[in-house]
Records
---
Amino acid sequence: MALRFFLFCLILGLLQGCKTPVSQSVEAVREVQPNKQEVPETGESKAILEITSDDVQQDDEKGAVIFTGNVDMKHIDFRLRCDDLLILMEKGETEPGIPFKQAIAVGKRVVMERINAKGVKELGLSRKVVFNPRTGDIILSGGHPSLQSGKILIKTTSQNAIIILKKDGSHSIIDNKGGESDSIEVIRKYEVSSEKE
């Protein structure tokens, strides 16, 4: 059974120096109001981050929270599904809306979905995804990462390729040595309309 955790609860525990063993905190999940952001169109508030997983561990010394097994991370800007997720916490005071410094998702197949700033639906597949909440960048790497952005499908032919998705909706592809990647295959997909007779 997947346990439901709000990262905000864990952040509160870290900031308050919580020393409760993880096994006890898992069994006694506190109902705490998550960090929310108002949605302009409706005026309703929406949770910035919600994470569901089979298990969770907290490492106070390293300032990290580790989610394992069937991880589903729903961020206000995107969604990640993976085997394991490491959240690296900020030390000291944090900026509003940025409760952690980095999220690293890994697995046999990590799936990233979002509607980018240009309104285009994107689907990324890789073995590792790194999210930086300060810049909004999402980095896909490992296992020939691929990206479908609207009608364009980008497949990389190298395991060293890295796809960087920017918050503004743009993206770039580089190799792990920092140069432009020559190991890219771009396939333009066109929707075929079928008429019923």
---
Amino acid sequence: MMWEDDILLRGGSYFYDFLNSKGKLTEVGPYILDSKIYLSNIEVIYPLGIFKYMEFKIPESLGLEHDELHRQLVKAIEEGGKVGEAAKAVADVLHPHFEKEEEYALPPLGLLSSLSKQDKIGSEMKSVLTMTDRLKADLPHMIEEHNRIVTALDNLIEVAKKENKTEFVQFAEKLKLHAKIEEQVLYPTAILIGEYLKLRL
């Protein structure tokens, strides 16, 4: 998935500013999210040829895990009291971090299955490098955000233990483990996908 702020609408056709050229988009699947136009499975036609872009989807298992963690966090917030306050503090640092992950850190992992099977590597995969390069550059900041999240989770654990709310202690521990798996496995794998494609494309 990719987005650009300089999408123009002219006469019912979408145009995308690329390398200071204007090209007509075909097979466009746009939708609006947070005032930005997202494009999936598009072809940009120029005199020199056709540039293809793929839609990179977060693996379903990871998406479901994020959804479940979000539901559990909402439940902790709705608990109210000191537990609810501590959970709200977790949400304040977690939500923007999840948004980043779902924008550029996790979608490259959608290519892992195809690459492991040595399926054909096409030029349309090249657009994933924008995501992997961004993750590589932003990795120290992502880890720093994890540290702030873990600090908030430790506070939630302490409060939940005092109130004998073991359900929320277990949730916080699960989320801490999730962050560690991202640091040790998911982020490095996403970056390696980009580095591997640079060698093959």
---
Amino acid sequence: MEGKIISQAIKAVISQQEFIPIATIDKDGCPNVANKFMISLEGDNIYFGDFANGRTWRNLKHLPNVSIAVMDANNLIDYQINGKATLLNSDVDYNKILVECSSRQVRFVTKRLIEAVRKENRKIKYEVPLLEKVIIWQVKVDEVVELGPSAELRQQNDFFTRGKR
């Protein structure tokens, strides 16, 4: 599924991430940022996993606006991705994303295990949360801000000046 806001270059950067920082604010305006398990990217939707007991979850119940930051380190381009999060329920999309989450978790743990064996590192944590304890959020992306190496700024849609805040 092709998105209108997220370019292929940005999709390539996001897809390489195991975790993405999700920034939210609480009802008093206090900011919170936490890394969340990156599950999937389809069109202009980003899916991430979370626990139903943390600050991100509480904040998104109050105000669904999120900001995600990812960086293309090879080209020194930083992307700020803004949108609204909704909690996925038990429907076709939820089940499809849950299967993808499971596959991604297996790949992540396998990769970490192989790296640890190669480096003879016994200190790496391998635990992965049980899927029954994970909730899945869908972020509908409304805006992408790109900051290049020479501080040039480009925006795709202007989320904040359209009054969607």
---
Amino acid sequence: MIRLLCFDLDDTLIDRRGALRRALAADFTAAELRWLEAADGATFAEAAAARFPERVPDGDALPARIAAAVTPTIGVASMLQQLRLRFTLALVSDGGAANQREKLRRAGLAGAFDAVFISGERGVTKPALLGLALGELGVPADQAVMIGDAPLRDIAAAAEVGARSCWIAAGRIWPASLPPPDWSIPDVLALPPLLP
């Protein structure tokens, strides 16, 4: 039985890479944007400031620029609305509080969840953040599914706390060195048919 669906935000419910390209296209070449996309992650702002100090004097400003460039992904809000009729929904996302909240607002998802767990607000990252969500919502791990795009931060985190997982493949091949997710789908809109 599944009671709780935990969603990652970046590149799961929103196109963060697209927002990165929109936010920074005027300041960086195509090759530099590819480098920034590859560097994207927990140390993204620091890596960008180190690589491009003349254009990124303040790495902390980059996440805010990206958040401001987020646009709604067609179908996601209505999918979440339908899923919320059957399941408890939680956002479980690593990132700065203000930027993640702004992304939710710009994507039209601010009120889409029963609970929101953002690492910048809670002081812990996944998998501890996922464990915190399970505990606060009172749902056993075996009755929860973590849905996300990151093999380590989302899928391995789910395995670590004993939850099921659904990987947003987005055209990628699952890393053979990692235990596989319970489900793999091309994008988040393919999730509803998988659920009982």
